[in-house]
Structures are given as structure tokens and as C-alpha cells.
Amino acid sequence: MGPPPAVADVRRAVRLALDGMAPGSLVLVACSGGADSLALAAATGFVASRAGLRAGLLTVDHDLQPGSGDRAADLVRLAPSLGLDPAEAVRVHVGTEGGPEAAARQARYAALSEAAERLGAAAVLLGHTRDDQAETVLLGLARGSGTRSLAGMPARAGLYLRPLLGLGRRTTARACEGMGLKPWDDPHNLDPRYTRVRVRTRLLPALEDELGPGVAEALARTADLCRDDADALDAWAGRAYSAAAGFDSALSDIGGEPGAVVLAVRELEGLPSAVRRRVLRRAAIEAGAPPGTLAASHVLQVDRLITAWRGQRRVEVPGGIGVVRRYGTLVFARHPASPIS
Ligand SMILES: Nc1ncnc2c1ncn2[C@@H]1O[C@H](COP(=O)(O)OP(=O)(O)OP(=O)(O)O)[C@@H](O)[C@H]1O
């Protein structure tokens, strides 16, 4: 008799994600002890041993709740029985910048990347599921995001893989049951003070009641479609950026300071706005604007220097970057030379 269907589904997803990896490579599972990453950990131990790969477990102890150190130690003790060796608990200090959730996430990824490098891992596996993806899309819609944000989380990004994005949370819970594993229920996952928890526990179930049980799956499909669109637009914008920034070198001292980015307006005027806005966003970032702080409204203001220019002198974007229109160019710089109007 084969394994229960949910166990087989999780193993298949892991097998697909690890396909093509060089024999002997080390893959690490980032495991919180919750159902998603516990099912992932067990399936990875199983698949890796049959695929000639080595598998290990990393758990991050944020030291935010009483007992978190014990939980991390329990996971490390459990790991060898799942075929995961090495297994490490990494303790991190969580700051407060950007709110407690964002700070914990940032500290977690930094710790995971550091441990992966130290252990020479070829990949770090995360337990995000289709339901996490659906929540991300809903949150993006509510913020008025564009295609890049609606694309949600990618199945692979650098070292990080998300093998379970095609499976629902119900499947991981059943897989744990099927393997006799007892996941940890994080009380945070039920705390309605978190927006994501309200989306998970109230909004998505209400949508499924009203619109049918396939809503999470449909939202995850939207994410995939948006990713394809965003990738295509990014590629177009990359070429457009090179054309607009790589014009005649005689003009390249217009910026007036090192690090300035100068774009030729005539290369931008005929572009679709979705592409032009991407070019402008990239120019601002290359000139020194921190990516996370650059809002759509900033990019729109810069865009008006092209589409609705009435001698406006200067647009400010985060990072102390000013944008001015000067001769047939847009100059992005910390202290751009005074504009021509
Ligand atoms: N403390 C942690 N240590 C290691 N990895 C973690 C930790 N917290 C989260 N992760 C990784 O990030 C993924 C997504 O985290 P998130 O907080 O959204 O999930 P979770 O509620 O912890 O659920 P689960 O553990 O069931 O995946 C997890 O599946 C896991 O791979």
C-alpha cells in the first residue's frame, strides 16, 4: 500500500522542486514546526535520500515567545528521524524597524541565508502554500498594487525554493497526520490583530462561502499570470532603460555629479506607461533611492515630467534624490544642476 494521498502530493511537489539538483548537494528546510514546513521537512528528508541529495533542517528561534527555544530544540532532536542532518536552531535578535512582523521576517531571512552559506547549501526550502499565495494577492489588491506585487511569491528566487505553492494548507495538515507528525500551532496565526490573520481566517473563508471553494486556487493562478506579465514588462523596460540611458556620451555630463542617471526623453515618450514607469523607477533606484520606499505616487510624479511637462522644476523622491528635466533629458541625482524651463 502506498502513502496517503496528501503525503504523496507533498513528496511529489518536493521531488519536482529538487529535480536536476547535482547529486550530493545539500538542501536545507526552513522549518518553524507549523504544519506546512513540518510536512515539507519530512517529505524533503524522504525524497533527498532517494535522489542522492543531502538534506538538513534550520529553525529560527526569534526568542519572542516563552518556550520558543524549547520548540526549536525539539525540532532539532526530531530532524534525524525525518532524514535531516545537519539540523540547527539559529537564535536571532529581532529589532523593531518596520513593525514586529517585518523585523522578524528580515531577521529570519538574514539568519537563513547566513546558515545556508556557512553550511554550503545549494537551496533553502520554504513551506509557503497556495493559501499563503492567495492571501498575498488579496492583500496586494486591497493596496492597489500592480502586477509585480500581485505576482506574489516566486517558486524560486536565488537560493530559496517554495515547493508547496501548488498545494493547499489542508493538504499539508493531512500530510502531517498521514506521517504521524504533530505540528505546532503558532498562536500568532490566530491573532486577529494581524491583517494577514484576518484575511486567512475571515476574508478568504467568506469569499469561498460566497463564490465557491476554488477562490484560493484562482487567486494563486492570478499570481502566476501577473508574474508572467510583470516579467515580460520588466524585460521590455530593461531594454528601454538601456536605450534611454545609453544615448550620446556628449550629453552624459549633464547630470552634473557622479552617480547621476540621465535619461533621453525622446526614448521614453513613445513607450506604454507600464514600461515607462518601470524605467523611471529603475533610474531613481540606480541614482540612490531605496527601493522599498519608492511609492507608485513618486513614480507618477516623475512621469508627469514627461507626459504633462509645463516647465515644472523638480520632483523629489526618497533618498534625497531630485529629478529635473533638462534639455531633452531627465536627470536623477542627489543635487541635480538647476533645470531649464
Ligand atoms: N521560525 C522559523 N524558522 C525557520 N523557518 C521559518 C520560521 N518561520 C517561518 N519559516 C519559514 O517560512 C515559511 C513561511 O512562514 P510563515 O510564518 O508564513 O508560515 P508559518 O505560519 O510558520 O507556517 P508553517 O510553519 O506551517 O510553514 C515557513 O513555511 C517556513 O518555511
Automatic annotation (TrEMBL):
InterPro entries: Rossmann-like_a/b/a_fold (IPR014729), TilS/TtcA_N (IPR011063), tRNA_Ile_lys_synt (IPR012094), tRNA_Ile_lys_synt_N (IPR012795), tRNA_Ile_lys_synt_subst-bd (IPR015262). Residues 263-330 form the tRNA(Ile)-lysidine synthase substrate-binding domain. GO terms for cellular component: cytoplasm. It is found in: Cytoplasm. Residues 27-201 form the tRNA(Ile)-lysidine/2-thiocytidine synthase N-terminal domain. It is an enzyme of class 6 (ligase). HAMAP family: tRNA_Ile_lys_synt. Belongs to the tRNA(Ile)-lysidine synthase family. This is tRNA(Ile)-lysidine synthase. The lineage of its organism: Bacteria, Bacillati, Actinomycetota, Actinomycetes, Streptosporangiales.
